[in-house]
Amino acid sequence: MDKVTKLTDARWLGVPAALFAERGEPGPVRNETAYYRCRFHLPQAGAQLELSISAHSRYRLWVNGAPVGSGPCKGDRWRHYYETYDVSHLLQPGANWIAVKVIAYSPYEAQQQGGGGPFAVSANAAGPCLVASGRCILPGGETAADVATGKEGAAPWEVMLDRAVKWEPYGGTAFLGAMERVDGGLLPHGWNGPDGGRTDEAHWSAPETRWPADGRTYGLIPPFPLLERPIPLLYERPRRFIREMPRGRDGTPFGTFGPALTEPLDVAANETRAVVLDAGELTTGYLSLRLTGGAGAAVRIRYAESYSRIGKRAFREKGRRDDADQYDLLGHEDHYRTGGGEETYEPFWWRTFRFVRIEVTAGDEPVAVYPPTYRETGYPLEEVSAVRTSADWTGPLWDVSVRTLKRCMHETYEDCPYYEQLQYVMDTRLQILFTYRLSGDVRLARRAIEDYQASLLPEGIIQARFPSMEPQVIPVFALHWIFMLEDYVWQTGDTGLPLRCRPAVDSIVGWYALKRGPHGLVEKLGYWEFFDWVPEWSDTLGAPAATLHGPSACHNAVFVCALKAAARLLRLTGRTETAREYEQMAESTAEALKRLCWSEERGLYREGPGLEWYSQHAQVWAVLAEIEQGEAAASLMDRMLAADDLPVCSYAMSFYLFRALEKTGRYDRTEALWKPWRELLKLGLTTWPEDPFMQRSDCHAWGALPLYEFTHALLGVRPAAHGWSVIGIEPQCLSLTEAEGRAATPHGPVDVSWSRRNGIFRIAVTTPDGVPVRVTLPGGKTVEMPGGGAMTAEEPIVL
């Protein structure tokens, strides 16, 4: 075999072709759901079981009726992940059940219409398949049961093909795949319970045994090349809704779950009732809805980020997010039809929502609907950093930023949890930086870097988002991946990952080099030359208009920055000659950019040669690329901020604007730039939207900039050498009179407290022992702490 995993003794199981033939189908040509279960007996308590499991395309796992987890972690054609769970605490003497619901998303469905699976989930034509392995070990060390799939002598597995679930596309969320339409009368209720449920045994069959889990001989790559999950399991936490919303504008009769959300809603025969619940914040979770009563009731569950309405723009119009008087609750829906009796409906995968609307139309018999609950889920990110200041606006900005980042972290970073759940490079680079600042956790960051490396296309550029069933290229995003790689080195000091990624870095630089035109600037990049979402570039879908005519100053300045970053990475990993080549290419590109795009009349960089178009973006990146340096760069920033006719950096691009101002000694000008965030708070947002002017998505973590700025600048904590081998502390005071807080570093937290009173600046810091620290006060005084520890210092305030 090619490699060994924890599933090495197992084989994949599949649904027998005969089960599809019974439905008149040749095989899995659409999204298919299958139920797998295994029964085994334990003679005594105290048995231990570590269960390793994977599936195509997705699974939910229960042991003796208790939910355990979901997976597999998102992968691609060449990396199919598996999880390992310790389920010992769920075992019991006597009969035990392992139950797995598997959904295979069809690669044949038209994903553009959302009829298949999520774009971020890999799928092929294999149908719903399962592989699992584990041994139940008794306290004395003997094996009581072996649950490996497809293994001779192990506990038998059985499978049933679903007949209840159909799939309904929703155009606005096509990236997420179809929503569910479920007939509760056909569901095998209780199949995953502690007694195996009440299902008709005639529907269960022996599964078909397929491939060995660990691949094939002679180096042949199997349909699902298995790798152990590279990140922690997602958490699941029980939650309840906090309130009911008032009657909406659609005229549907409303019901109520009572003032404490504890009473059932009784719906009379042939009557319709609706209720809207508020989770209190935008969240991600598994909804659970219990019903009792007659069969045939139609239940519609609508998930929404906010109240909104259809307007003249491409995206919905939004005001205050909980304004039920002037806006409607629009969103995508799951549909459920009751089968009668007591039943619980849970959509297979987690949903994103702040508001959930439940509408029930009873059939010929009444039905009772119980207040739903949900299990919040996400990446288990530990909050280490916290910042408090004398300004009343910093606290709310911090809190919303923490929530936004968390909601965009699951098995990958996500551009948004509601619309796409795709991992885009530019978004992810910022989210990774914010994660470093909030937590110091590098695991999801490392996974993202490896994802993009795996997305490399034959022509030499990485994809803009990955994993993704639909390939996409946004050229400048490949350059942001190089920045991401260098950020990782600064955070960890690890050069092993950059060493492995060097071929992809070279490939990207080579791809760009082939795009250089006769004047030495890259141009006609093709694909989608997106740069930033600003109103002035709406007609070109976020691409600078200069790209329609030739070279773009913005794209070329980012290319210069990426060349320099690539050169630094190559020097760190021992390739000085190639680093020199990249530095020379950066120098020649910068020279051509200044010669062809600088306007003496305006003292600004044009958007392109011969064009009288300007933007903040071109000036910011000219400074970051060090095409302008020193006092010339500072003056350029002053002129840029004074100009009132420039397309302004969106708040997604504000990170780079802030870096340019910091680089030129103008960081004090950033305080006024927090206005878009402060204005958004007035709209009742609990997470930051995609951008301030379109606001398609209400949760986009590239806006969680306070997590970086408040720790890096207000507290002043930053790495002064790779891997934080030297910790720098250099507060930026703005107009604040005091600030205190904690900042995460790989060596442990750094505590900082400073104040400006009575003409004196005072600072106290506590840092990890054994790590050198350099503290720079606002007036320029420097204090060295070679062994770390605690210190206090003060200086007169220089006006």
Question: How are the SSEs ordered, and which strands pair?
Answer:
Layout: E1 11-14, H1 17-22, E2 32-42, E3 50-56, E4 58-63, E5 66-71, E6 80-86, E7 94-104, E8 129-133, E9 135-137, E10 143-146, E11 157-161, E12 165-168, E13 179-183, E14 208-212, E15 226-228, E16 235-240, E17 243-244, E18 265-267, E19 272-293, E20 298-304, E21 332-337, E22 341-345, E23 351-361, E24 367-369, E25 373-378, E26 386-389, H2 394-407, H3 425-438, H4 443-454, H5 475-492, H6 496-513, H7 553-572, H8 576-597, E27 598-599, E28 604-605, H9 616-624, H10 630-642, H11 654-663, H12 675-681, H13 706-714, E29 717-719, E30 727-729, E31 738-743, E32 750-757, E33 760-767, E34 773-776, E35 782-785, E36 789-796
Parallel strand pairs: 6-15, 13-21, 30-34
Antiparallel strand pairs: 1-14, 2-7, 2-11, 3-6, 3-8, 4-5, 4-7, 9-10, 12-13, 16-25, 17-19, 18-24, 19-22, 19-23, 19-24, 19-25, 20-21, 20-23, 26-31, 27-28, 29-30, 31-32, 32-33, 33-36, 34-35
Helix pairs in contact: 3-4, 3-5, 3-13, 4-5, 5-6, 5-7, 6-7, 7-8, 7-9, 9-10, 9-11
